[in-house]
Amino acid sequence: MKTEVRTNWRGDLSDSPACADLSPAELEVLLAIGGTRVLEPGDVLFTEGEWGHDLALLLEGQLLVETVQAGKLRELARVDAPAVMGEIGLALDAPRSATVRALCQARVFVLDGDELHRKVRSRSSAALGLVWNVLRLLSRRQLLLNRHLLKLLEAEEPRFDMREFAARLNEWAL
Fold first, then answer.
1. What's residue 167's pLDDT?
2. Domains in the chain, ordered, with CATH?
3. Extended strands (E) in the chain
4. How far apart are CA 115 and CA 124, in angstroms?
5. What is the pTM (predicted TM-score) of this model?
6. Confidence of residue 12 (pLDDT cuts 50, 70, 90)
7. If you count DSSP H runs as helices and E runs as strands, how many of each does the chain have, helices first?
8. 65, 137, 144, 146: least CB-packed within 10 angstroms?
């Protein structure tokens, strides 16, 4: 994994939905607590099971999200830029729930989770704006998951008990 040295990351960050509506000064605050990476095809950003709480903003490229289930590698998603990765580890202080690797050359801005937590606790407008935008992105993702779940529930022959699964999702969200 290479680190790219570049002087105008502010412009790239402002294109990320996670940084929508942040001022140039707020973007500078985020630049001070993060770093940039260029991933080559196959490079791993996060590894399932490892502890980590850094937040990654995918600026260019495509990432593969995969997990091991019952000893078998399963593809969960292919994520195109712009996107946010690592929010579960950041918010829950839990091991990474999946492995994320580059499918092509990708540019990622990684925010240090400890520094971001400090900024949130000190009520930094940059950190609070970023967290608010990530919350909005996650809410949109949840709406899509809900719609997908409803389609599965309406299927004539579900492969497993979707109602139990839906109830569990609600429990897990608490």
1. 64
2. 9-142 (2.60.120.10)
3. 34-39, 44-46, 55-60, 62-69, 72-80, 83-85, 99-102, 106-111
4. 11
5. 0.80
6. confident
7. 6, 8
8. 144
